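Please, structure for the following, as tokens.
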Amino acid sequence: MDNTQEVLRKYGTRIRNIRQENAGQIAARNRGIQEAQGEIITFLDSDDLWLPTCVGKTRASLAEGPDGGAL
């Protein structure tokens, strides 16, 4: 077992940790979508890298609407 729970506890209520039996990646994503409480859902897989400005640029682009600027 890893120390995920210990690391997440440091963030308090800023992060919701949802646990379920292993049912594969699609089931995990679907569960995450069902539990989501925000307006925007995005995925960050283990082989992805987000630059520090990624979320801000994405939010700004979405706020501009479907004809907004490209990222």
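The chain is about 40% helix and 0% strand. Helices lie at 4-9, 25-35, 54-63.
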